[in-house]
Amino acid sequence: MPDGAGTAFVRIAGLKRYFDVSAPWLVRTIEGRPRQIVQAVDGIDIEIAKGETFSLVGESGCGKSTVARLVVGLYPPTAGSIEFDGNDMAARHSRADMAALRRRMQMIFQDPFASLNPRWRVFDIIAEPIRAFGLSKDKADLEKRVGDLLRQVRLAPVDGRKFPHEFSGGQRQRISIARALASQPEFLVCDEPTSALDVSVQAQILNLMVDLQRRFGLTYLFISHNLAVVYHISTRVGVMYLGRLVEVAPTETLFTRPKHPYTRMLLDTIPDLDMTGRQRTPVAGEVPSPINPPSGCTFHPRCPFANDRCKAERPAPLAIEGGTVTCHAIEEGRLPIEDRVYVANS
Amino acid sequence: MMATPSNNPPLLEVKNLRVEFPTRRGTLLAVDDVSFDIAPGEVLGVVGESGAGKSLTGNAIIGLLEPPGRIAGGEIRLEGRRIDNLPYEEMRKVRGARIGAIFQDPLTSLNPLYSVGRQLIETIQTHLRLSAAAARTRALDLLKEVGIPGAETRIDHYPHQFSGGMRQRVVIALALCAGPRLIVADEPTTALDVSIQAQIIALLKRLCREHGTAVMLVTHDMGVIAETADRVAVMYAGRIAEIGPVRDVVKHAKHPYTKGLMGSIPSLGVRTERLTQIDGAMPRLTEIPDGCAFNPRCTERGARCLVERPNLMAAGTSRAACWLHDRGGVGTPIAKETVDA
To answer: I need a labelling partner for B311 at 20 to 30 A (CA). Which of A22, A65, B303, B338 fits?
Structure first.
């Protein structure tokens, strides 16, 4: 269960990551320009239970990919902590301990064209994590392992002799998944794994991910901007806006009883096949710059329910219906929670 | 509002269009015998996976095929006039004036060195005989029409000062400069966030309704099509697999490929264990199988599908290129190969 203490497999607390995007020092001094800091991730708490799929959704620039990179350690956090199976990732670990932790988490990237080395054969790409962590005894064992991995992602062992350019986008994403599975991880961070793919291929990859999760008991942190995909694959969903989590809820609750005005807005804007002929209400405004985020609740300039308190005071997360929501209007009961009804696709 | 192609003469007629690419290893047929028409004020959606030939069809219509790609056969008529064989300079006058184009990435469609106003005015003066002052007024009106707040000051801004959604609005304003009869929009919302996507779609629909402009909307996003288009053409391996009213194609697909495609789209409201998946991938242009191009992935194929290529035939209110809808049927059923690699 998500809330019980000690049961969380991955615990992210008060996570922040700021990027300095200022002009060079000399230019700043001469032109009198201030430092500019992007608050890409601004205080996020997430607990992920073992075996679940936790998804982060949001529009581009909301910091969801930064969270993914922070979790696997590709960026050091500015503040906050990441605990993986009870181990604080920032604490001092011996090299061997760190490698043992690293082995247990892997990442799948968005672009299967950029994430595979074009000069390496597929066999070497998949064998790299096995070699790096010293997981195989000899060459025969290595070959067997890579062959098994290729078969698990529905490719053939002979494909290992080919180069990445000989494969289609969907097949390359399978190779990325095979590489991520090579070190026998327990936790996979998937950053938009299907958004570069066609829908029919996306369905293949999503089905494969569900199969693998069941087979190996994997835990996923799934990053996506596609709400329909998130609805399909997740156990729980976190909605991000400008570096902050505005709502976390079990998938079914989030989609049937959305609470935060931003979540409602996002749900209103998804083009859905069932809406043929129905008028969508486009929402005015755009995501503000994370360099100068609005005061108080960062969503207030676009929010139809905002009042003076929303402009001044940053809302705190409020536990509600098995999730949390960060909104003054919900907390004060100004904004009633309504059920959303979906027409089932026949 | 719904355009019925039968009682209006079509605005755009595409007949047996073939686009080919000569390569060292022979000629590749990227668009093979594609025919459709668009009525005035109608929105025709063209969907398909990458490599299906949807963008090439759009580019052939606006006369912007990248060499060595070329139109190898068939004809394209706009308002009855043949435009596929026009000399370059002639086609330039048609493009912009009669046909507007919107591309996926608004940043590459705009010149970063000129203010948006200057680009709009240049386009207006190229196609319409207007004084500089009148052209500027028209440019301002266009910017207001596509919903750019503070158009009076924004007109002198440069593309980098606009956000993605606002840039796409500027591109739409550019396409509308000369009051075209047809707009070819190639993935106009793909580079945008969902909330902005909704704004742009609403804008396109409104402009289309108010000006009676027809739109050929090329996209891979079935959701966008379902909301915007009157009719939809589904392309597969360079051919149209199915074409018909959007509701029928989405809800009652006739071609097995369309059925699979619809099933593979995750949908809100119904949570299934597994998505329907079409095994395998679309064949490369060099490896298009004999008979129906979809046959290796098809669950309903028969002996006839392996040898004979189906053309579009009536299937309810739509037309589908599938022998299932022919009186002769598909012949002896053949189990689908297990294609995974």
So the answer is: B338
